[in-house]
Write a structure and sequence with these properties.
Layout: E1 2-6, H1 9-28, E2 34-38, H2 45-50, E3 61-65, E4 67-69, H3 80-89, E5 96-98, H4 107-120, E6 125-128, E7 152-156, H5 159-167, E8 180-184, H6 186-190, E9 194-199, H7 205-213, E10 231-236
Parallel strand pairs: 1-10, 2-3, 2-6, 3-5, 6-9, 9-10
Antiparallel strand pairs: 4-8, 7-8
Amino acid sequence: MNIKIYESRKALGAAAAEQFAQEVRRLSSIKNQVNVIFAAAPSQNEFLAHLHTYNLNWDHINAFHMDEYIGLPADAPQGFGNFLRERLFEKFEFRSVYYLNGNASDPDAECLRYAQLLAEHPADIVCMGIGENGHLAFNDPPVADFNDRQAVKIVQLDEDCRNQQVNDGCFEHIGQVPKLALTLTIPSLLKADFISCVVPGKAKARAVKNALEEQIDTKYPASILQRHSNVDLFLDRDSASLLT
């Protein structure tokens, strides 16, 4: 794992965007299509904003997102598809954008549909973060499974995860935060050839320390990144503050 520490969130986001651009250009030179899975969270804002400075072959990219709430209104700004649509997917001409539907009449069928799309478009790049509870996507400690046989699944969000959504300013109080979500599983995320993990902020310092310094365990879902051969972890001084 390549651990990179920057003085500010802005510098972190700029560096992560530059690395992403380099990887997309490399892949575009050898492949007709590049498959990318994006995270939707305020922690990604600086990274997403800096992508606009690069002239990339966006029309080579098939875009996915890694999780979605179940039951929010279709136009809710907190929806992860909507978050990425506003900040990224409508800014460039992607080859394809594949959305998870949190309002599907049959959530199990929606999991299978999205899993099939992922199978047809094996991930080249995953752009992720780490949650305050150490989650990857919505694989919170109670439901994280490093050997999950599903590619996409329905999960119940733990209280720490739901509180983070309030702390991030996405919801006014925990009662507004959905209790269920769709998420790509940890094996689905780890299949990517390259993982860019963007983790700014003091609120993430304990999760970062656990991910890097604890043994690999589902109590610390992000600790599984230790096993991946090609991860760039972008930290700022705050998120790296507890590392020894």
